[in-house]
């Protein structure tokens, strides 16, 4: 099984889901980056693996540049200043498109899985 450890068949490319997962989290409330990283780890999207914090922050910066989120420095709390991320209207629109795209993929994957199972049954 070690030969498949980094194979896409093991779901190693699920980091592409960081953006829609982050937008989903921010749709509920504004969050600090470290909270986003923690909450992403709690989801099943990454199959229980800890997300790369630098990758999450890079994604947040890109989403900010694209106008999907805003970030403000929160200096009211004790300790160092932290950025508080908030989803924008454009980010919510992007999230809605993600939902539509993922629903289409979900249907296609269901069909594809059935084809795979049928093919394997024919071989057996």
Descriptive overview:
This protein has helices spanning 18-28, 33-42, 53-65, 89-123, and strands at residues 31-32, 69-74, 82-87. It is mainly alpha-helical. The protein has a three-stranded antiparallel sheet with strand order 1-3-2. The protein is elongated, with a radius of gyration of 18 Å. The relative contact order is 0.13.
What topology emerges from the helices and strands here?
Layout: H1 18-28, E1 31-32, H2 33-42, H3 53-65, E2 69-74, E3 82-87, H4 89-123
Antiparallel strand pairs: 1-3, 2-3
Helix pairs in contact: 1-4, 2-3
Number of helices: 4
Which ranges are low-confidence, i.e. pLDDT below 50, for 5 or more consecutive residues?
none
Strand order of the largest sheet: 1-3-2
Give me the Rg, rounded: 18 Å
Task: Sum up the structure in keywords.
124 residues, mainly alpha, Arc Repressor Mutant, subunit A, 3 strands
Question: How would you concisely characterize the structure shown here?
Answer:
With 124 residues, this protein is mainly alpha-helical. It contains four helices and three strands; from the N terminus they run αβααββα. The chain has a three-stranded antiparallel beta sheet.
